[in-house]
Amino acid sequence: MCLHARDLFCFVLFCFSLLPSSRVSGSFFRPRFSLCQLRFLDNTYTYRMVVLDIDGLPVVFPYQFPYPEQLSYMSHLKRALDSGGHAVLEMPSGTGKTQTLLSLITAYLTNRISDKSRRKFVYCTRTVEEMYKVLDEMKILTAARSAELSTPNELLTAGLASRRHLCIHPIVSKMEASSIDNGCRSLTSSWVRESVQQGTADANTYCDYLETYDREGAEAILRPGVYSLNDLRAYGLRRNWCPYFLARQLVSVANIVVYSYHYLLDPKVAGIVSTGLPPESIIVFGMYVSRSFSLVLERLNSLRICLTPDRTNFGFR
Amino acid sequence: MVSDEAHNIDNVCIEALSVDLEERIFLSASQNITQLDSIIHLKKREASEQFRAEYIRIVSGLPRIPILNQNSQFSTELTVNIDDVPLASVTPDDAPPESVPEPIRKAEEFVNFLRKLIAFLAGYIKTETATQEKPIPFLLGLASACNIQDSNVFRVTHSRLVSLLSTAHVSSWSEFRPLLVIADFVTTLATYEREGMSIILEPYNDFTGEHEPVLRLACLDASLAIRWITQKFRNVIITSGTLSPLDTYPRMLDFPVVVSASMNMSMERRCVCPLIMCKGADQTVMSSKYDDRQTEDIPRNYGHALIQLASNVPDGIVAFFVSYIFMQQVIKCWCDCGLLEELRREKLLFVETQDPTEASLAIQNYKVACDSGRGAILLSVARGRAAEGIDLDLQYGRCCILFGVPFQYTESRVLQARLRFLSEKFQIREDDFLIFDVSQNISLVRGFGFVLIRSSTPYSNVTVYYCSIWIIFKQAMRQAAQCAGRVIRNKNDYGVVIFADKRFSRAKLRSKLPSWIAQFLTSDSVDLDISGAMMHIRSFLLQMAQPTGQTSSFDLRPDHIEVEFFQRD
Description:
The complex is a heterodimer. By secondary structure, chain A is of the alpha/beta class. Chain A is built from 14 helices and 9 strands.
């Protein structure tokens, strides 16, 4: 934690400049700067963030200067969450919508919903690339939060995509994208598994990852953190678990789920994947995730490597 | 061509419940049936008890394969095989029918039923005229053709097929895709027979004009797929960069909102300069109106405007025409009266053609020319192939001018049916929807085959012009619209946008501009002639070319503060 006189002065100026333009009433925010250092390998990265006060909710925002529209966005979003209704929010692309949204909802989940099992937030993206970006942002936010708040992160974030993005089976995953589903099914269908168990079929015809997961996975508890698709694959390889079915199970366990629109909107898939979501869930349809990352993110590119879930407590001071 | 930004939520909803059947699908579906038939015969000999077990299961009222229970952990009954296989198209909260009706319980009977079904649909599609039917009459015809009295048969067709496939131990679902699609068609149709659905037969391809009949089950009501979500969950938040007009989504998706807000983008300085140019140097009104196009005045004035721009604007200029035909016409006119020579003296000229490789080469060289410092002119078409993918930031798009208003006209029956439905059920007016839709989604326009120019259509009113502007914004003004973050946040970028058509100056149209553009559109930048516009441009460019000082609060985030911060630490 560190404050500098000039910085504070600047920020006061900055805040004043916001006042006439913002139409949001009430106390806006009481900014608190903090500076933390992340140690990774031999390098030290300096990471700056701000803790905002949005109508009494302390929100860790992992960038130094929030834009006025971001503050107003948070305020509107919080109003919607408080009243328990639906919302339609428009903010131009490139203004950091994703991070704004994630920061507020994460803060809301941890501070306002005391029942841990009811903390559920579903972020729907349109494409898998967007999902990667959202999960990356979430990693940064999680790192910032655990650095700032000194309480351990309790939220489990996971992404879900189709088999072709998650399969790690040595043969099936090398197949063409369109035949991965078939390949998987030919190894994992219930009758195939039955016949293998009964010894009537060759043991090579089933997927070892699924069998291991089926044996061990049910009792497994994943540590809180952010599991992107890559992390799930890496984790699957380490534990010999099928990442796809792990991700499928995580949908019901994780606090924050990032997946495609189709898992909710397409009734054919929704019936299988999404019916178990509790009614208290916060559902967000993000329409477009900007391709442009802010400069801060670019500078942190190298940092992102170390933000894997099982190392969430790495080198923070 | 599906552009990346284009898929939005109402389209996803609609696509989820729409099914297209082309002619060749029936052929492969018949092959599927034969295949399935032989599998059944083979298996029946080997393991008849499986089919008996399935029959018993079906009779006892479990038509659906048990769904993976989210709450219980993975049990031994791991229903992995059904995962990505489409189940019946009912929303998850809809109760499935009690049991599979009598006529399709037995495997052979079901296969026979499917055969009749395919024969009926394949016959239906043979018609030469385009038709549109409501679900119930169509279902009645289907029922009589298949000798079915119970409409529940259609409702469970899909789940029955899935059940049969898994009983027959078929693991390659994609082979049976055609059959599954047809079953999906029937089941979706029967499930939503009373709601916003329509059956549309289009015998001819809109683009090529060839006889390629398509039978579409068109979902007209986007709220069908999302309703269970908005009803079940406490908070549903829809957020995007472009949602305006804000009330359309809640109306179209039929759900109440407590908060709807549009955040404006804060900009450090006036980095966009929109101008509406209505008159040429000789005070002739500029317009790409079809009637006026034949005269030489309009192309000549456009040419003069471009020459003026070329001499005033450093770096790249992109000019958009409303269509390839119009572009050719104008260029020919410029060539005849020597304007082209004059233009080439100012800057290098590149033309985007309909050939994709040629167009991308032109754009590539245009960029090279811009990088060299002298700047260049790119003549392009508003909805051209290449215009879509190029980033016109920094020196590549210092100025963009739009010659005329690209009219939109749709002959798409699906879109027309949807427009009618929206106005009947949700009182969303056609032009409101078109604005909304086009501003949201260019791909819909592409996919549904909007065709240029048809001034006598019901859609050719002022608001449709606006749709077109949006397209221009989206494509030509990348620096201002989708990539706003990259460019407008960048202090060094700025750009001029010129709308060169009289019709752009109408108030109704201007009032619907997105706020970040509208805030810069002052009354003195509307209804300009060429020299007036040049004055604006010159002063704007001069102002923008100044080094950026610490004039506003936003300049408080440069790096030098951080350096100090560092040292103290």
